[in-house]
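Why do we bother with a discrete structure alphabet at all? Because it lets us treat a fold like text: something you can write down, compare, and reason about line by line. To make this less abstract, here is a complete entry for Inositol 1,4,5-trisphosphate receptor-interacting protein. Read it the way you would read a sentence in a foreign language you are learning: slowly, and without expecting to understand everything at once.
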Amino acid sequence: MQGAITRVCMVVVAAILNHPLLFPNENTTIHEQDEDLLARMKEHQEKLESEQERLEQEISQTETALIGDQDSYGWYFWSALCLVIFFTIEVCRQDMIPAEIPDPVEDEDGDSSARYLSAKSVALDKDVLNNFSKTRFHPFIHETGRVREFIEGFADDLLEALRSVCDREADLEVEDFVGIGSMFESWRVSKPPMCDLIVPFSPPQPFRFQFQLWCDPATEIPLDLQGCGRIKLIKPGWNGTECLCGSTSLGDDMLCLLHNRNECEKLEEHTLVELLCAKNTTYLSKDQIMRWFQISVTKAWGQISHKYDFELAFRNLDFPGALKIRFRSGKTVVLNVTPAVQFEETDAYLISHFPSDTSNSSDIHWQLSLTVYERNLLKYLAKRLPTNSCHIHCLQIVSFLHKKQTALTGRSAFCNYHIKTALLHLLLSKRLTMWQPQNLDHRLRDLLSFLQQSLEEKRLYHVIVGNPRIPIEILVPKIICSAEPINLFRPLVLQRHVYAKMEEHFQEMVINASVLVQEYTPHFSNGHMRHEFSSTDQA
């Protein structure tokens, strides 16, 4: 009897472990999986039926040999248990088939295959890419120099007027601007020209800023705010100990000559905190600073507008530094002026926002900008690259594809900063001799593949923070070098729909890459160059 029971248990275990739905074959296609599954199910069903008949015969023979009703009831129990187990397997089979074998979804062209293309297999012709780069981006070289010269002169004039409208004793002190972005890194790709400026400011004397970065062990900042920091407005002796009248027992006929002045200073301090800091804190508020900045820029432009023959307007009220210059000819220049706080005596800045990033909604957490170090790194590497290296063209082409794909399918969280970060990682990891101009097609595929892999792995690390490959000549602050690397995709991964749209945007861009390059490449006919532009070229 014990042997028969053991056999029944072994049959049940074997049926469960060998069930075709328990370990599906993940490497087969949907149709192959379907046919193989049905064949295996039919085979197992026949085996189970024959085994059940054999077991029933053994059970019937064993029952005749058993003595006592108690043993008979035990056999009935085991038979019922086997039926329940087989019935459960059958029910699970009905539930699992739709989940394991989904119906293929066809796209608009009737193709049931997923819209995925490996960046390594993108068809890119070397001659077409060279012709595309020369005709598409070279005309910007001279125009960029003129626009940059104009913007630098206008920004100096605007900031000087801004200083004149500010109260030097009770207002923020505005310092000289710092140019960043494609216009100042010589990889502009499209019209209208866009210039990004950082405008540092500092508190009036005797106040100063105290910084609390995310990488400081003594600072508690949420994980989704990596790369951010708080700015505390402090004043030496703010606790009132500078005057002895508050801690010394003076006679009734004694008068503190400083007391009245201290009361006035405390009132000014309270007013400054309300003007610059978040409510009930001494931490600098981004909203308060942006409001102050918008008012100050408006007043400054009112003082100098008569000197210029163009219009200046705010493009986005949510970002007061987003300006647009419109000339009488209809030409425009986009200007992003971002207020910032210089981190100690370094080229790092804590800024209110990145123009392409709206994920940080905290009012007191400022984002760390290391774009000056990135610009210096790009210059440092460019001096060591081969003559006429293809790295800038790689950056320009992918940025151009991103812009055109945005015009086709709409905006996403993917931005040019991600592209530049990926390029810098490749420049640091590959031999510099591999960036010869004749290798443009190979390096372009490498850049697209790096971005594609980063999106699949959901991580793209900041090129400066915690990167041991950064040359010491770049002079990155020690606290930034020793910090843990920052995943630029982390805040986006937490927003699933945002990240899914970004992945879809990039995949469509890869699929359309060769078509877009061909479409916007000049074609030669009868010795004359002509352009074939689509409506998206005007975007």
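What the structure line is telling us, in plain words: The radius of gyration is 35 Å. Residues 20-33, 93-114, 258-264, 525-539 have pLDDT under 50 and may be disordered.
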